[in-house]
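Sample A.
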Amino acid sequence: MKKKEVKAKGRVKAGGLYTASKVPVETAVVSVLAGKLEYRGLQLIEPISRAVRLHEIHELIITDEKVQDRRKPIQRVSYLAFVEVIKGGMILVGDKANLNGKELGTLIGFDDTHMPNHQNIILFAQKRMDGVELEVKLGDVISFLSQDSR
């Protein structure tokens, strides 16, 4: 018996994963980072979502490279911050990252280089700036918002 294809009207879709709705994830900056690399070689993992739990620490990295092929490494990066999850949930490729309510970039993927210590969370922004250039401060809130929670 063939399964029926169900239309996912009004749902967030990224890479074949349907999310009907989700709460914003909130993080607090615990370390401000500075620096840029032209040849970092971050490898995006295949999954396009990650569940993040309260008190986990993760690294946020910005690139100005548009992803055409997820198998090709991300080279041009700037280092933003290490953050602690203060409101857990699910983050998904396509989510908007906001710094103190101001849009910072779009989540484009994850790199497992430092797992299980921490996940690299990669954001796309038109302008590649590090934490110091963006005037990030300890305790600043960085939220991840889906289309339905903006």
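Sample B.
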Amino acid sequence: MSIPDVGAVAPDFTLPGITMASGEVTRSDFALSAHRGSPLVLAFYPGDETAVCTAQLCSYQAELTGFKDTGAEVWGISKQGLDSHERFARKEGLEFPLLADEAGEAVAAFGIGLPGIGLRRSVFIVDAEGILRWKHVALVGARFQKPDALKKALASL
């Protein structure tokens, strides 16, 4: 599949995920189509506990209040399972949902699969109606979009 265009309806998916709050982890399913009414940052990342991914997700955690001030939620998505996500969230204090796309369903729907690596580091911003409003798909995953760039894109919604 190809990467969806800005202005298109974001591809739907339902994935299992974890959310940690005050040290307690909850497991539940997350459906993009069920998330309406507020913007959503979908941060696809190659792997739990890798250097760049840890820096990226920790920077989003540090700015979580800033994202919430724009009305947005952040979902991290990678191909690791829930146990890996739980260890990662506990170790790094990540309090936004981490979704497990082990079968690559969402990765395929967003056209960001990368043979041998799994996926391209990518960030998509979906508005309150489910329309894709901003995207960044990396050719190589060595760098990531900083929270300020994402908050600027969210502010323009």
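B remarks: Residues 14-155 form a domain with the Glutaredoxin fold (CATH 3.40.30.10). The first helix runs from residue 51 to 62.
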